[in-house]
Amino acid sequence: MYLLCAENITCGYDTIDILTDCNINVKKGEISSIVGPNGAGKSTAMKAIFGLLPTKKGKIIFDGEDISNLQPQERVVRGMGYVPQTNNIFTSLTVIENLEMGAFIINKDFKNMIEYVFNLFPVLKDKQNQPAGELSGGQRQQVAVGRALMTNPKILMLDEPSAGVSPIIMEGLFNKIKEISSQGTGVIMVEQNAKQALEISNMGFVLNQGKNLYTDAGKTLLANKEVRQAFLGG
Amino acid sequence: MDFLNGIILISNYIIIPGLTYGSQLALGALGITMVYAVLKFSNFAHGEFMSFGTMCSILLTWVFSNIGITFGFFPTAIFVLPIAVTFTVFYCLFIDKFVFKFYRKSKSKSVITLIVSIGVMFFTGGLIRFIIGPGDRNFLDGERFILAPKTFKSFTGFNEGLAIKTTQGITVIIAIILVLFIFWFLNKTKTGKSMRAYSDNQELALLSGINPEKVVLITWIITGILACVAGTLYGLDKSYKPFTYLHLVLPIFAAAIVGGVGNPLGAIIGGFVIAFSELFITFAYKKVFYYLLPEYLIPNGLLQILSTDYKIAVSFIILVLVLLIKPTGIYKGKII
Predict the structure, then answer these.
(1) What domain range includes position A196?
(2) What is the ipTM of this complex?
(3) What residues 195-224 of chain A have any CB closer than 8 A to a CB of chain B?
(4) What's this model's pTM, rounded to 2 decimal places?
């Protein structure tokens, strides 16, 4: 039983299709990575799943329901958290205000979620009253992930979480992502650093030119010679 | 004694008027900055919104004094302010609904909306002159001074008098209350924070479920409040003439840009920077030196750097310098 399952989705801009008959899925408490070369449609797939881009064909099933026609905001209420690749924090707001804005849509007490995020990223607790724009690249990503976690989502979608951060920071971030998924949250992420991403992933989806090229367990894809040569640099 | 006389002279002609004028400019600039931060355009109609608010205050003052309601020591206009503010807010919302909304929906460039705001400015100006006429109106009633110069002189025995006009006291107090309220609103309430979030990153604000229509609505409400209060305070202090407000928008813009447009704290600092530089540069210092220097050193001229006719030029010189040296303003705002 998949937590989220995008079946045969086709979408794009105007007449040009970026994705054709693409399948992506993730189970509860697992990590799925979307990897592939530049222009493969990885980010487009994420946007389509989150509803930022209308799908022309196919459907998206989340938690047993068809959500293909819902607005992104409604998907947030249903339990999806999305971290965009760029401009994913409010730079002039403090760290804690960023988290509060993450919980804007839910009218529940979110104190325990702030605790959860601070436990996950202790550095944010120390800097909670600092404007998020003054933080380092890695800390900004933590704020971005924390913001998306504030609604206590069932699924977390990360678009290039390691973009612009150093390898050491990236490793730390990947460990946190593993920690989040071990709490029962499903994670879908798009990654440039395909090798490292597949290492922590239960499932890997290799896209090329908008189509599924390989779909298999992360470890299996890493062991696959063709995949290694074509996409993982040998 | 002479030294203190000099200090009193400067307080009377620069410090107190500067604080008053600065507060008025700060409130005006805050309105412009709010619109810029949230709606992303420079609202040249703001001066006329201030004028509209003042007109409402004047009309209401007339109504109240006709039916015989006055407030003793305080000017009537202060007490009718809440009603005048309501009218101004409705006017702002009306203009937004029928003019600005169209350009917002069609995602026009900010320069186009700027030109539209100039159109709104002329329309509003015409409407105001149609309703109340272009003449000078003095609507100040109540007590004129909190501290009259004569009282001060007889009380302290100084040569120089120190005057604090009622309007000056009221201006500064109301400005402080209003500014504190707005900062509290922006920084402590959920709606205020969502406005800052929307101004910072519209896309992410939408993803977070912040309703843009609500943010825009609140922005116009705050703008209407600020415009009406700033305009009424200025009119009480200096008398109301519709054409003055057409010119007033210029130092207000200078204040907003000098402080860093889009930054509320910057707008306030900018207001005082502009107000004080205008006064410092156009003040005739002769009398101050008369108190401070021995007689043989006192120069003959007025010791005025620029004539008061150039008052508005001062704010523009500062504006040009700021744009050349530090285009983001004192506090980092967004470059226009």
Answers:
(1) 4-79+153-231
(2) 0.88
(3) none
(4) 0.89
